[in-house]
């Protein structure tokens, strides 16, 4: 990922030989500008948060655009600060965002109901019925589950639905006018046929027949409601004048920039770690946490713990998606920062977070008898409709900062490792797991404990913290410079050939300690169920 030539960055930026990646994550919107060798030239970001409105997790579309504008403005400022030039164009760009969820629009292009994010777990009946109908696991957060649940509930907006998309698809549509979606993100809306890399025709027909019997259905076939599917490298349109004004109201960025297909954060995470070939996988840790493992063959049967989705090139992937990731760990870090301030020793958030993670390495391998549950929301893998974050210990447990920190990190990985066990049962081979996200920015801590949790080597590269924003910038470069070549080969030969990776093998003591901890963690899930019923 080093520059391909010695041209000054300012010249590269001024001439537009760059790529711009934007990703809308759960808590941050990030922008990343890369050069000809995929090196990071500048970054920008803005913070945002979901809201729990009428018992639904959502983001307002106003916040989408104000957040995007703030992140792009921050990127332009950072570019000028670093390189003395303010870019007016880039060679290509792309948009990534949280997968799944429900964005339903009417014929006039207006949003019919507030955005229902991946975090909502209100679609259990729909997901169960569709899984049985299709013979294909349909998770609670998939777009088709949300649509069918709205049909079952007789929601008034259903007959008005004209177009469905994901968050990345929505932003791309407003920027280009194109109602398209990358194949990886599309595979989280509706099941895909791996042979055609498009929506499964038989399942589409089965869905239309089923909703017609309900008597409260969309007026158009499902195929007509869904965005057109594109694979990595295909033409996905260009930035329009209206789109440029939405993205950058100052008028600095000019229209005409070509865009790659919009993708979900799972797909860009795979690209950001170079894990798009069979027997590779990656873990992304943020507000949610998920693992993506590229399959050599289809799974033998349906597993409720596993989504079957695709890479941005359309190859089959088993996905273990957990609704709850590192948010609770971050909340504890914030609390400890407040405590330090109260003692007269204010500290930067990153320093507190790093100290907490560092303490985890000093903890006992089994956590000293402590359990930590990070369930801010429901968790389908463990069958919980709602969550209640908690720390549990027995009278004989050893409550130290080190043990507390270790079990908080273990708690981030607990549900994920339960889902990964199913892959082991399927005989899925994994040579190496790549990890990315802010949790892995502190060297050697979360990486080491993740290796213990999954029993496989874990690699972290120097783009671990940039994550999907850098990944979608790479896909934008691929669309502009290498379309038609194999994505896995492009990543291996053009992007990661000189990459420096830090690989950690599972430590035997950590593995044994984590296994003992996970046994207690699994038994204690009944406490979560009781807490959700008792504490409203």
UniProtKB/TrEMBL annotation:
GO MF annotation terms: D-xylulokinase activity
EC category: transferase
Family annotation (InterPro entries): ATPase_NBD, FGGY_C, FGGY_Carb_Kinase, FGGY_N
Keywords: Carbohydrate metabolism, Kinase, Transferase, Xylose metabolism
Domain Carbohydrate kinase FGGY N-terminal: 19-247
Residue ranges occupied by any Carbohydrate kinase FGGY C-terminal domain in the UniProt entry: 282-478
A Pfam family reported for this protein in Swiss-Prot or TrEMBL: FGGY_N
Enzyme Commission code(s) on record: 2.7.1.17
UniProt xrefs under CDD domains: ASKHA_NBD_FGGY_BaXK-like
Keyword Kinase: yes
Family recorded in the similarity comment: Belongs to the FGGY kinase family.
Record-given protein name: Xylulokinase
Source organism: Georgenia alba
Lineage: Bacteria, Bacillati, Actinomycetota, Actinomycetes, Micrococcales
């Amino acid at each position: 990922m080093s520059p391909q030539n010695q041209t000054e960055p300012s010249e590269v930026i001024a001439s537009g030989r760059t790529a711009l990646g934007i990703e809308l994550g759960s808590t941050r919107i990030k922008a990343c500008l890369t050069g000809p060798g995929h090196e990071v030239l500048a970054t920008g970001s803005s913070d945002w948060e979901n809201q729990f409105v009428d018992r639904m997790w959502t983001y307002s579309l106003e916040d989408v655009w104000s957040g995007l504008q703030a992140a792009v403005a921050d990127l332009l400022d950072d570019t000028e600060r670093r390189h003395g030039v303010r870019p007016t164009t880039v060679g290509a760009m792309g948009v990534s965002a949280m997968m799944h969820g429900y964005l339903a629009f009417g014929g006039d292009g207006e949003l019919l109901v507030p955005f229902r994010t991946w975090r909502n777990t209100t679609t259990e009946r729909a997901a169960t019925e569709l899984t049985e109908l299709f013979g294909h696991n349909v998770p609670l957060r998939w777009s088709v589950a949300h649509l069918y649940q709205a049909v079952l509930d007789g929601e008034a907006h259903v007959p008005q639905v004209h177009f469905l998309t994901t968050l990345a698809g929505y932003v791309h549509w407003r920027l280009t006018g194109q109602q398209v979606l990358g194949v990886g993100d599309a595979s989280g809306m509706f099941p895909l046929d791996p042979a055609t890399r498009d929506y499964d025709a038989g399942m589409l027909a089965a869905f239309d027949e089923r909703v017609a019997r309900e008597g409260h259905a969309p007026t158009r076939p499902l195929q007509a409601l869904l965005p057109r599917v594109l694979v990595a490298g295909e033409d996905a349109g260009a930035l329009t004048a209206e789109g440029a004004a939405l993205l950058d109201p100052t008028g600095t960025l000019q229209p005409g920039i070509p865009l790659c297909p919009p993708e979900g954060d799972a797909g860009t995470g795979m690209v950001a770690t170079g894990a798009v070939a069979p027997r590779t996988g990656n873990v992304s840790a943020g507000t949610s946490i998920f693992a993506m493992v590229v399959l050599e063959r289809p799974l033998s049967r349906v597993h409720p713990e596993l989504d079957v989705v695709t890479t941005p090139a359309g190859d089959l992937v088993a996905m273990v998606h957990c609704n709850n990731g590192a948010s609770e760990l971050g909340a504890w870090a914030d609390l400890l920062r407040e405590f330090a301030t109260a003692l007269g020793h204010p500290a930067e958030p990153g320093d507190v977070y790093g100290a907490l993670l560092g303490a985890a390495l000093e903890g006992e391998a089994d956590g000293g008898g402590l359990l930590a549950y990070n369930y801010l929301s429901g968790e389908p893998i463990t069958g919980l409709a709602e969550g209640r974050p908690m720390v549990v210990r027995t009278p004989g447990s050893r409550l130290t900062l080190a043990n507390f920190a270790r079990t908080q990190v273990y708690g981030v990985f607990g549900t994920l490792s339960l889902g990964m066990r199913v892959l082991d049962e399927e005989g899925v081979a994994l040579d190496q797991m790549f990890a990315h996200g802010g949790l892995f920015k502190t060297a050697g801590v979360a990486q080491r404990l993740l290796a213990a949790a999954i029993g496989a080597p874990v690699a972290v590269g120097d783009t671990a913290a940039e994550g999907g924003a850098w990944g979608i910038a790479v896909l934008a470069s691929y669309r502009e410079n290498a379309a038609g070549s194999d994505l896995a080969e492009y990543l291996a030969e053009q992007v990661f050939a000189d990459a420096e990776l830090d690989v950690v093998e599972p430590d035997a003591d950590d593995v044994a300690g984590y296994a003992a901890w996970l046994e207690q963690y699994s038994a204690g899930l009944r406490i979560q169920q009781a807490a959700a019923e008792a504490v409203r």
